Amino acid sequence: MKQWVLSLRAFQFEVASRAAVAAALPLTVLVLTGQLDWAAYAAFGAMTALFGRNEPYRVRLRTVTVAGALMLAIITFALILALVEAPLIVLTAGLVVVIVAGIVVAAMAGLFPATPIFFVFGYAVIAQLPTPGDEFWPRLTVAVASAAFAWLLTMSGWLLRRVAGRRGPDLYKNLVHGALTRPAAIRDRRVWVSVAQNVVGALAAGSLALAAGIGHPYWAVVSVVAVLPPPGAKHSVSRAFHRMIGTTLGVGLTALVLLPGPPVAVLILVIALGQFGAEILIGRHYGAALLFVTPLALTVVHLTSPVPVPALLVDRVLETVLGSVIALAIVLLVRARGPLKNRH
């Protein structure tokens, strides 16, 4: 029994479970109320639970609040652009703003994961969803409610630990020291170099996907952001390949789920398991985590705006390859130039 409990601790069962519940419950409510077309707003609000992990609660209060507030600000921004049917040039400028905000805020607030992948993904999906004027506030309310629920779940361990006391400490992953705030990160050259790499890579990937006429061009953008490392991290070719392979295999797993045409309940379960698996692995092996992030992402898109599954999967594979190749080229260029020293 003790070995089983220790195994749960080792794999961060508590962290992953709350992320899964944060996604599953709001989506279930939408199904029961007949508003499944609002699934994207609930799903991205729920991604607030992907931050904070096993940080001490004083630190977690800051990181989860910052992450949730940023996610809601980006959702609101994307909703406004969708509402006014913003042209491509405006959507592109908005993407740049989101990339800058995602990287800089993550660096300053000590967020983990430190990449802007979830913020970029949320913006890219929501900004292109048709949004009737009378549904702006209901959709935003869904996102806010989902993010608030995720925030409460993420902080709920504080109460559970006080109730459990010494009676069940092994049921919880030991809290570790979280990242400190770094206001000076806004002057960190490595942060702005990372911003430049992500912006250049995202714009190149999106432009090539549009020129090639591939559907869902934002997948290429998301692939670039998924492969590039966070500021200050090593630009490793092997890690880039791990992330490419993880994303591609994730598409294969998604095909096994979506091609049979499962009921909505199964899709919600896939999203919950995606968040669970991502939390289990993201701190250990980002490439392996993408095995779960990719089905999570594709299933959210499929719930929100259903298209023929084979076309969705083919687009995802093509754009994963395109975005990953561009990101790998950036990694190789950075490695060829040698290590980047920080300058304030």
From TrEMBL:
Record's protein name: FUSC family protein
Cellular compartments annotated: Membrane
Pfam families, alphabetized: FUSC_2 (PF13515)
Signal peptide: none
Coiled coil: none
Membrane-traversing stretches: 66-84, 91-124, 136-160, 199-228, 248-274, 286-305, 317-334
Membrane topology qualifier: Multi-pass membrane protein
UniProt keyword list: Membrane, Transmembrane, Transmembrane helix
Domain Integral membrane bound transporter: 205-330
Assigned GO CC terms: membrane
